[in-house]
């Protein structure tokens, strides 16, 4: 059997660990052959592929990013996309696909299997940790560690100048990175997309912090919004990607300006951006990504297509791709409420 492997969507730490585990187990236990598709779904569309064997994956476990490249290509938006994928898989002798990605990449895999019978197994990947069918996705732990370290460092510069520091982290629809890193880093305010924020309340927390002779740290997810209006912050010139997403940017800068205007306290913004995705994966992400890879190739071996591997507690299970991509996992209201006592 020959198995194709691709990584789609935004890069994140741990992708290479999955690729390595898939190839090593597939070759050593089952004598499978592997084809790596370049740049996400663009690879099967164009036939851009490279051979994968054990020497090819040697040494990639600690490396960030993906050796296969990635893109946000949506084959269902391309002319004759499914036909082209079928032809390229046949030409390369690929019998099944392992797609590693988030909701968009896995959504494509689900449709290819359900509507067109192309054998696919999914592996969940997103630093946002917002896939509902799995307790955790790899990449999230590394992103939280990076954001927490940044917050730790910003505390000292905020205190030195007694100014407000607003830290913008990733999180379009889900505030898991903001919540976890803000809590771990001792932030004084945490703002998430699931709970619209009252700017007067935020400024009240900031002011109370200064009254206690401390400089406040405000952590805000990129998708957070105020209660008084549908503020849309984006890079308008960038347009939409092939899955219909806008590029969010600017909530941190806007928030810092509003806090300074309303409180009279000097405020600055730090946007962590893509640094949250880059670099060496944490030990947990390497562990989780490796286990996902081992179980993904086992699913291929057993013919369980149209499934995604997922973490439930400490066990790896398989869930339908359609279920995995049906909705996002957002921060529950009660989870956010329990940490609000630490604000201000």
> How far is it from the N-terminal to the C-terminal residue, by CA?
59 Å
CATH topology of the largest domain: Rossmann fold
Give the CATH architecture of the largest domain. 3-Layer(aba) Sandwich
The global form is elongated
Structural class: alpha/beta
Total number of beta strands: 11
Task: Give a short overview.
Its EC number is 2.7.1.90. This protein is of the alpha/beta class. It is built from twelve helices and eleven strands.
Structural write-up:
This protein is α/β, with parallel strands linked by helices and 344 residues long. The protein has 2 domains: 2-138 and 279-324, Rossmann fold (3-Layer(aba) Sandwich); 143-276, Rossmann fold (3-Layer(aba) Sandwich), CATH 3.40.50.460. 40% of the residues lie in helices and 17% in strands. The protein is elongated and about 70 Å long. The protein starts with a strand and ends in a 5-residue tail after the last helix.
């Amino acid at each position: 059997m020959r198995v194709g492997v691709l990584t789609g969507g935004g890069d994140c730490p741990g992708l290479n660990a999955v690729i390595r585990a898939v190839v090593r187990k597939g070759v050593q236990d089952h004598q499978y052959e592997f084809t790596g598709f370049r740049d996400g779904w663009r690879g099967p569309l164009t036939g851009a592929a490279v051979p994968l064997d054990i020497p090819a994956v040697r040494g990639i476990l600690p490396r960030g990013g993906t050796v296969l490249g990635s893109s946000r290509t949506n084959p269902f938006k391309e002319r004759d996309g499914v036909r082209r994928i079928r032809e390229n898989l046949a030409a390369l002798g690929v019998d099944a696909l392992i797609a590693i990605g988030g909701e968009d990449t896995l959504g494509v895999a689900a449709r290819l299997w359900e509507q067109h019978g192309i054998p696919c197994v999914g592996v969940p990947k997103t630093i946002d940790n917002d896939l509902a069918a799995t307790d955790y996705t790899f990449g999230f732990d590394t992103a939280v560690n990076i954001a927490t370290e940044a917050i730790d460092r910003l505390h000292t510069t905020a205190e030195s100048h007694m100014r407000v520091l607003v830290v913008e982290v990733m999180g379009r629809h889900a505030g898991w990175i903001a919540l976890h890193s803000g809590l771990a880093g001792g932030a004084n305010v945490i703002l998430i997309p699931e709970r619209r924020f009252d700017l007067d309340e935020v400024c009240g927390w900031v002011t109370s912090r200064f009254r206690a002779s401390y400089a406040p740290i405000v952590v805000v997810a990129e998708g957070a919004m105020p209660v008084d209006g549908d503020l849309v912050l984006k890079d308008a010139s960038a347009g939409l990607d092939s899955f219909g997403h806008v590029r969010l940017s600017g909530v941190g800068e806007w928030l810092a300006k509003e806090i300074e205007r309303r409180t009279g306290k000097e405020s600055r913004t730090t946007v962590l951006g893509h640094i949250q995705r880059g670099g060496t994966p944490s030990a947990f992400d390497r562990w989780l990504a490796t286990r996902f890879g081992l179980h993904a190739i086992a699913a291929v071996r057993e013919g369980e297509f149209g499934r995604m591997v997922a973490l439930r507690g400490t066990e790896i299970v398989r869930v339908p791709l359609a279920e995995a991509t049906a909705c996002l996992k957002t921060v529950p209201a009660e989870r956010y409420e329990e940490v609000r006592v630490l604000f201000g």
